[in-house]
Each structure stands twice: as C-alpha cells, then as structure tokens.
Amino acid sequence: MTAEIDVAVVGAGIAGLTAAHRLRAAGRSVRVFEATDRIGGRMATIRSAGYLVDTGAEQVPERGYDTTWRLLAELGIDRSRAPRIEGGIGMWRHDRAHPDVARPRGLLTGAGLPLAARWDLFRIMALAARHRLDPHRPEATPFGSATVADLARRYHRDLGEYLFHPVVAAFFGWDPHRSAVAPFLSLLAAVGPATRWRTYVEGMDTPARALADQVDLSTSSPVRQVVADRDSARILFEHNEIRARSVLLAVPAPVALALHANPPEHELPFLQACSFTSVVKAHYLLDRRLAPRGGGRIYALLVPPVEDPTVCTVMFDHVKHPSRVPHGCGLVTLIANPAVVPELLDAPEQEIVTRLAEAGEHYVPGLREATTRAMVSRIRYGLPEATPRALGLRAGFESRLGGVVDYAGDWVKLRPSSEGAVCAGELAASRILDRTTQPGRQRV
C-alpha cells in the first residue's frame, strides 16, 4: 500500500509541533493528530473571563534555552512577548516566606537556609561548574546513579529538606528518593538564577499556538495503535486508518509504549523504565490580589514536605505577570505535594479544590473568601521521572533511534523542560529527514 502522507505526528505538544514545523519546512507532507481538543500538552493555557491559567509549565529561562529562543525568533515571538517575571521565589520556613531562592544573593541572605547549609550549597555549585554539566547528556556527570536524596544525605540536613526536596517536588513533581540527581543539577546549572526567568504574556501556550497555525493539525483525533512495517507504518483510529512513511510518537513514554504495537526489542528497556510523575493543580480565580503571609513580591512559594504534606507550591500568577488577570483581580494556583497526588488524581474536582484551599489558607490568608471560581488541572503524565535505571539506558536508546516509528519529548533527553521537548522535536525531525531522503531528492 502506498503511503498517504510522509509523516504522521501523534501528539500536539511542543515537541510534536516543533518536529512537524521542521518537516513541513523541508517539504514533507505532515499531519499532526492530537487526542484532546487542546494543543500545547504540558504547555497549555485556559482562558476564562479575562484570566489566563497555565495548566502546566510556568516559566521560560533566558539561559540554557538556546534552541527554544531560536525557534521563538523564527516564529516572530520576540522577548517583549516573554518579559521577565516580576516576582521572586520564596521558601516557607519558621511560619514565613524567605525570599531569594534561586538567586545568587540567596547565598548571603540565606533563603531559609542556615550558614552551614549555604556553605554546602556553594560546594555543590562549585562541583557542578567544574564538571560543566550538560543537560542534554545528564548521564555524563560525576554523580553516577545517585538520587536527589542520596546527594542530600552527604551534606547538611537542611539542604535536602529546605532546598532540594521542595525544588524537585515543586518544579518536577519528583520523589527525591527515586529520581537521579544528575538531571536535576544539570538543569539548574543550565538555566541560571531566577532573576532571568521569563513568562509568556499571552500564556504558556504561545509557542504552541504559533506552531499550530503553520501545520496540518487534527484535534480530538485519538490514535488507537501504530503498527510499523518495513518502509511505512499504519496509524489506526476508531473507525479508519492511514499509512505514513514515518510516524513520530510525540507523547509521554508510557503512552508511546501503549500505542506502538511492535517496537524493536532494543527500544523496550528504556521505554519501560521511563516513568512519569503526575501533577495536580487547583487554580483559584480571585476578586482581589492576595499576597503570601508576611507579604513580599513572591510569585512562587515553595513549601517543603516537612512543613506541609498537602501543598508543595503556591503560585501567585498575578505577580508572575499582571496580564494573567483582569484589573484588580488575582489568581493563585496551589500545586499538590507529590505524596498526595495519587489519591487526588481521580478525586472529584470539588474535593481537590477544598482540600488544597484548606491547606493553602495558611500561606495565603483570605484565599477562600476571595475565590470567585476554581478549576483543577490534572496531568497524569506530568514530567519524566529520571530514575537511575532510566538514566543508565537513555544514551543507548537515543543513539539507536531513526526507524519507521520514532519518538520525541523531553523524556527522550531526560530533561524535564520545554527546552528538552523542543530539542527532542528538532532532533526527531532531522532523523526522519535522514531516513526518508531519497537519492536525487534534495534535503532542505
């Protein structure tokens, strides 16, 4: 059977859309299939009555995101549409928020850490700088298979309890006892201080929407199965199927494993080892702007697990950028502690809203009274969990990609970020072009 299209991309997250954009520019016929009615994946935004609610990713750093910024420039999205975040990051301790987390001056002010813990943090930062950690090759570090918890045990106790553990819980949804420290430190070293982090004025789905405008996209089109043949693959839907010369599974690893009917044996170990953490958020649309207890220009308040078993992060979206809310209003997002996410993931929405608000009231006085409406975001496959086993298998898996069915996503790089997803999408497009370029057919 002749292939109907050159490439079918399954998944309209940033990785799949980036790959489709590159392949279309190279002259290939490409179609993107998204199972839901929304694009952007973990970079999606809900718009409601003047509020912009980011359901997944929260920021885009200036540093360490070179591929992303090149793509944004190409799409005509300049830095005025992604200004620096106005507030800082705080750490909750001793019943108050301590500012300056992820800022150089935090080593001086403490950011909730005692002097001995700050000295240990300086030692770790010096070690990371000396080895020039590469976020694209997180396995190539001196930390081996050590977990975040393993590293924390070597240093001052507070460094783990009041920095490492709350940061990995807040930004990755990770269990520090399961997740390798190498990707964590590699990413932190790459992105630099929080003073240079930015957000998209029009919502975190800004690049996804710009990419979607340039590709052939079908939403609400769930794929049931992908079957690879020698030179093409069949994509099966509920009532029909199509054939493509190449298929790109730009979905989380567990979803890719479930969709791909006949993956090569050498791909299975990493696909099976690449687990994901889930994320549950409750967004509270407020009739006024609220601040953390004690005040301060904080846009993200990290709550260590030793302080609270229910909430790990409080996001003040109206501080992150005023465009997120109507004039005079507020928006606060509470992110559930990874320890309680399994029991909340399938819970009724009102139960999640109530439970998180009860805990969040301690950090945001007046939260329940000011709430006019609340909504819940659940991301079953939130971020790739870089376990030591997955880390050990990653490089071998990536080096052998390039078949009829390929993969894209931040999990391929074990770099849990939009930059990881964009890089994976670009590399997947290059592999597909290499495989499908025929003699006499010029590559673009």
Automatic annotation (TrEMBL):
It comes from the Bacteria. One of its GO terms (molecular function) is oxidoreductase activity. Residues 14-433 form the Amine oxidase domain. Transmembrane segments: none annotated. This is Amine oxidase domain-containing protein. It comes from Kutzneria albida DSM 43870.
